[in-house]
Amino acid sequence: MDWLNTDWLNAAWLNTDWLNAAWWGTADHDVARFVLQRGIAAVYVIAFVSGALQFPALLGERGLLPVPRYLARAARTPGPTLFRWRYSDALLRTVAWSGAALAATVVLGLPQQGPAWLPMLVFLALWLLYMSMVNVGQVFYGFGWEILLLEAGFLAAFLGSDQTTTPVITLWLFRWLLFRLEFGAGMIKMRGDRVWRDLTALYYHHETQPMPNPLSWWFHHLPKPLHKVEVLGNHVAQLFIPFLLFAPQPVATWAAVVVIATQLWLVFSGNFAWLNALTLVIAFSAVGDSVLAGLLPGVPVSADTHAALDTPAWFAAVVLAMGLLMLVLSWWPLKNLISREQAMNASFNRWRLANAYGAFGSITRERYEVVVEGWDGHRWLEYGFRGKPGDPARMPRQFAPYHLRLDWLMWFLALGQPGMHWFIPFLNKLLVADRATLKLLRHDPFGGRPPEQVRARVFAYRYTSWREWRNSGEWWVREPMGDLVPPMSRAS
User: Fold this and answer.
1) CA distance 347 to 352
2) What secondary structure does DSSP assign to 401-445, as a single string?
3) What long-range pairs does 123-127 form, CB within 8 A, spacing at least 24?
4) Treating both helix axes as pointing N-terminal to C-terminal, what angle do 275-283 and 144-156 enclose, rounded to 10 degrees?
5) 151, 387, 60, 483: CA torsion to nearest 10
6) With 0-12 CB in 10 A as exposed, 13-18 as middle and 19+ as buried, what is 167?
7) What is the DSSP letter of 395?
């Protein structure tokens, strides 16, 4: 019968020549794909290693907020997780170290040398493995850069391999992610604290940010007029420049350069885990090879920026389907961006895709720190944390892009946010000198022995002035404000 004639298979609408069209793929973003794939994978390595080293003590079977207890009480987890049916510290470490190993192969460029399905499967595996940790991580994984890494990892699965052309659709979705990240942060500031509107935010920020780095003291002491210029430049970078990411080249590349420069400024002035490093990696989605070659002559560039490799039809279909999915999911973050009740760092679906982002909608004016001490029978001795301020004479350290989860939660605790549900268990761990917990700290004044009692006090901290620093060599001046937790012992 005529309708069984297979000539329809040769119909023009099935001809894959359309995959060579400029709207589908471009050879002008080989550098962008190189940086995106390897950069995002490098952050996954850090995230998984951080999880392997910190997760068991914080959330493990005998952690501060044990995952088994959380799963037993939770009617439904925030999203899919491999641990929904079974959790053990051994399984967690298997997931974390496997994820780090998989991500390392992408950093080395191994999956990219194969067909398009190979890097796709690797990145989807990274996304699912890390999402399994985030979705049971409770407050210790409640940071915006967790969902940013998940969304970036999902999109990276659709960049193809060295055997395919870089899909334009995926690059546009990365730019849309960067737009939400930057413009969302800008809008949350303008809608939030007045110090962003009167340009005085940096009078306070470098001193009161969660975890200062070695240069934060110096940034704080810059002249106040320069601080106002910095804030104004931040507003330009976050409220105006993101729109130019969608402009034709070379404008899009120069917009990306501005984003990268502002992110490097933040890297130099503070510790924000992998937020800034990942943001500047994502900014490369707008960088064109031809423009970059003009700036850096050593960069290879294709003679035909629209030349396409032999892209498989199945891969094109998958990328198109993914693009349609992200287009639909983008309605919720778009609505959030224009809402007066803008949410910050929020997910609108269980798969952590098309999220809302933002940071520092409000700026604290004074710094408070929780200092934890133990009693040895004669005197109180202070425990030392790795990243958060403690000893006034200790210069702040650089840890980002590594994420010190306990130290970050200590900052929120000092602000008065709820945290006793994990902090009291933390103090109890110190009372029994729990080895896993002590490994999260920089200094145990008892050398692995249990103290007789522990307590937590609140101190007001401020940076030393130039004169105070020259005279004492100390970076901080601190003043006791009172007890957060009075002395407690194992019998308490």
Assistant:
1) 6
2) TS--HHHHHHHHHHTT-S-HHHHHHHHHHHHTT-HHHHTTEEE-T
3) 123/37, 123/40, 123/41, 123/153, 123/154, 123/156, 123/157, 124/154, 124/157, 125/99, 126/41, 126/44, 126/99, 126/102, 126/153, 127/153, 127/154, 127/157
4) 30
5) -120
6) buried
7) P
- Sole residue written with tokens 């992110």: 263
- For the CA atoms of 326, 330, 332, 334, the dihedral, rounded to the nearest 10 degrees, stands at 170
Chain segment 2-42, per-residue pLDDT in tens: 444 444 434 444 444 545 555 567 778 899 999 999 999 99
**For tokens 């006090």, what's the residue?**
457
Q: Which two tokens stand for residue 93?
A: 């470490």
Statement: the pTM of the whole predicted model exceeds 0.90: yes
Contact 155, 351 (CB under 8 A): no
The 10s digit of each residue's pLDDT in 82-97 is 999 999 999 999 999 9
Question: Helix, strand or coil for residue 373?
Answer: strand
DSSP for residue 271: -
Residues whose CB falls within 8 Å of the CB of residue 188, separated by 6 or more in sequence, listed in order: 342, 344, 358, 359, 360, 361
- pLDDT tier, 307 (very low <50, low <70, confident <90, very high otherwise): low
First to last CA, the chain: 87
Q: Render pLDDT for 100-153 as a digit per residue (tens, 0 to 9).
A: 999 999 999 999 999 999 999 999 999 999 999 999 999 999 999 999 999 999
